[in-house]
Design brief:
The protein is built from 6 helices and 5 strands, in the order βαβαβαβαβαα. The protein has about 160 residues and is α/β, with parallel strands linked by helices. Bound molecules: 4'-phosphopantetheine (PNS).
Length: about 160
């Protein structure tokens, strides 16, 4: 069974993430969406809230697990017996960051494989940070995130 891990902060989940999730399902038997705590970022949603939102957004798929972890991605992938990690690639900026991460993870575990999936053109400018910035400034994020996320953001800001 081919297991892929899709790691991230998902704060919040965007349409770009959903596109990578749906296309990843075509090349694996099971996809594990792993919510990581990023110590460098101040979170908008708690890890529990993010997991709840993601579970709701992907509930029509029966071969997706939603999990959380604090620790290294390398340890997590080994623990899950995953074949590879998949990440979305929007731009040359992502490319530089992701190749560095992939090489570091390979150093930590020589069996660690990273797959970079080119984001759909229509999602190439969407980021969780931009969504948060729009939301915190009173803008409408409905074009960029699944409905469940837009609703959760509204409730959080109430
Ligand atoms: O959605 P993000 O914030 O770009 O996701 C980044 C994430 C969570 C994939 C990255 O920060 C990560 O791998 N965190 C786990 C900690 C780790 O393994 N660090 C060592 C690699 S440099």
């Amino acid at each position: 069974m081919k297991i892929l891990v899709f790691p991230g902060s998902f704060d919040p989940l965007t349409n770009g993430h959903i596109d990578i999730i749906e296309r990843s399902l075509k090349i694996c038997d099971k996809l594990v969406i792993a919510v990581f705590t990023n110590v460098a970022k101040k979170p908008f949603f708690t890890v529990e809230e993010r997991m709840k939102i993601i579970k709701e957004a992907v509930r029509k798929y029966n071969n997706i697990d939603v999990d959380s972890f604090s620790g290294t991605l390398s340890d997590y992938v080994e623990m899950k017996n995953a074949n590879a990690v998949i990440k979305g690639l929007r731009s040359i900026v992502d490319y530089e960051y992701e190749t560095q991460m992939a090489l570091i993870n390979k150093c930590l575990n020589s069996d660690f494989e990273t797959l970079l999936m080119i984001s759909d053109e229509k999602d190439s400018y969407i980021s969780s940070s931009a969504v948060k910035d729009i939301a915190l400034n009173g803008g409408n994020v409905e074009k960029f995130v699944p409905a469940v996320v837009a609703e959760a953001i509204k409730n959080k800001l109430k």
